[in-house]
Amino acid sequence: MLSPTAGTPQTPTRVLVIDDEPQIVRALVINLKARKYEVDAAHDGATALELAATRHPDVVVLDLGLPDMDGVEVIRGLRGWTRVPILVLSARHSSDEKVEALDAGADDYVTKPFGMDELLARLRAAVRRAEPTGAGEDEVMVETEEFTVDLAAKKVNRGGKDVRLTPTEWHLLEVLVRNTGRLVSQRQLLQEVWGPSYGTETNYLRVYMAQLRRKLEADPSHPRHFVTEPGMGYRFEK
């Protein structure tokens, strides 16, 4: 049994749990509330989207197999207006389905059956990635011919318009930009963006690098700024 105080956040964090299995919802609500999280729960996609709009959660835990719509549709619906971290919870094991969820805008993926310790650790990591950093730490502006990255404001502008990035996309971009011109290894990127327990999930990097290129590169198939060093890692070039 987990300690009720382990992993308790300093300020209340609101979690939206979306799953049609009552026993999983019950277990998550009990464990999250024991750690002082505020919890809302939905058993279908339509209710989930309505709750997200009215309750403004800090993080979403989402099952892909919902009775009224596929979880990927919920992800896309949320990503239409919010960058809230989304942690996918699903019994689907194929890498294609995981990549589809990540590509739609999910931030992480936990396969059922899961350990509560792991799930809570992933949830805390997702929330940390979305938190703004302290004032004065990110007073850096990086400009390229195609886009501008404002690290202080956590904003990217391309062609005079703000580019919407998910928290994970932003964190990956931030690590690369802070190491402009230097090779950042796959392991370093995984551990800095997803957490210390990651190191081999290179498919995550491929998905998110493809998303950054689509959003920011003039020619995503021939990237100028987000350069792959095969088998080693990635490099950001201005």
TrEMBL record:
Q: Which CDD domains match?
A: REC_OmpR_KdpE-like, trans_reg_C
Q: Which SMART domains match?
A: REC (SM00448), Trans_reg_C (SM00862)
Instruction: Name the residues that span the membrane.
Output: none
DNA-binding region, residues: 139-238
Q: Which domain of life is it from?
A: Bacteria
Alphabetized UniProt keyword annotations: Cytoplasm, DNA-binding, Phosphoprotein, Transcription, Transcription regulation, Two-component regulatory system
Single GO molecular function: identical protein binding
Q: Where is the OmpR/PhoB-type domain?
A: 139-238
What Gene Ontology cellular-component terms does the record carry?
Answer: cytosol; protein-DNA complex
In-chain residues carrying the UniProt-annotated modification 4-aspartylphosphate: 63
What job does this protein perform?
Answer: Member of the two-component regulatory system KdpD/KdpE involved in the regulation of the kdp operon. Upon phosphorylation by KdpD, functions as a transcription regulator by direct binding to promoter regions of target genes to positively regulate their expression.
Question: What protein am I looking at?
Answer: Transcriptional regulatory protein KdpE
